[in-house]
Amino acid sequence: MESVIVAIDGPSGTGKSSTSKAVAAKLGLSYLDTGAQYRAITWWMISNGVDVHDADAVANAAGKPVIVSGTDPARPTITVDGADAAGPIRTEEVTSKVSAVSAVPEVRALITELQRTIAKDAEHGIVVEGRDIGTTVLPDADLKIFLTASPEARAARRSGELKGVDVHATKEALIKRDAADSSRKTSPLAKAGDAVEVDTTELTLDQVIECVVTLVDEKRTAAK
Ligand SMILES: Nc1ncnc2c1ncn2[C@@H]1O[C@H](COP(=O)(O)OP(=O)(O)O)[C@@H](O)[C@H]1O
Ligand SMILES: Nc1ccn([C@@H]2O[C@H](COP(=O)(O)OP(=O)(O)O)[C@@H](O)[C@H]2O)c(=O)n1
């Protein structure tokens, strides 16, 4: 197997971004954070006065922003209409509105197309992380991983990042976002039937990275 495509899905705070970046860097693969793309389009909607709860308005505007993702795992980037969006897409406002925007089918169709093009163009292969990569975006991925962790562990990790934020409020917000992402009609957050589930609650980040690297190596050996 010359080039390898790895899909990593799961709810918020399970370790998708940290694991995917590290695995891609170790194996010389590209890296794509698909959540950053949904955050970027959400940021554009907010900045341009589009009501994110008006699905028709979001659908009509969905084709306007030009979103570009840099896929070097050592320095992932995201721009919207040429402007660096890495900071603005992480605000609480974007986090609280992204599930409404990402549920709009026209948004998903456009972003899915973009993701498939990026994966196809990755010379040595790519690690793509999100919610629907194994089920919808790249159903033929060489390896599919579904990360899970208890809501308590996930909330503790997230509130550790956002210093001073209450862990209970973080947990409630995570549960609410997961519920919205899991219950939408178009490509909800779900484990693909052929994905390997890894519960990271009791694992260190290094253990999770090691586990995924081993699974990729096994796939590569089997394909020889
Ligand atoms: N297995 C783990 N044990 C402890 N902390 C972790 C683990 N995996 C990730 N983290 C930390 O949890 C936070 C959220 O991880 P992240 O990779 O952004 O998750 P996701 O992309 O699934 O939302 C980060 O601060 C990260 O360093
Ligand atoms: N493949 C994907 C990735 C993210 N998303 C949406 O984008 C949001 C933000 O994703 P993210 O990966 O940045 O979220 P965090 O868990 O890192 O906070 C999710 O809550 C989903 O609403 C999606 O619908 N499909």
From TrEMBL:
- Residues that bind ATP: 10-18
Q: Which key words are in the record?
A: ATP-binding, Cytoplasm, Kinase, Nucleotide-binding, Transferase
Q: What is its EC number?
A: 2.7.4.25
- SUPFAM superfamilies on file: P-loop containing nucleoside triphosphate hydrolases (SSF52540)
The question of whether Transferase is a record keyword is answered with yes
Using the UniProt record, give the first listed, main subcellular location.
cytoplasm
| InterPro entries noted in UniProt | Cytidylate_kin, Cytidylate_kinase_dom, P-loop_NTPase
Enzyme class name? transferase
Reaction(s) catalysed (UniProt annotation): dCMP + ATP = dCDP + ADP; CMP + ATP = CDP + ADP
Its protein name is Cytidylate kinase
Q: Where is this protein found? A: Cytoplasm
GO MF term list: kinase activity
Domain (Cytidylate kinase): give its ranges: 6-216
Its family? Answer: Belongs to the cytidylate kinase family. Type 1 subfamily.
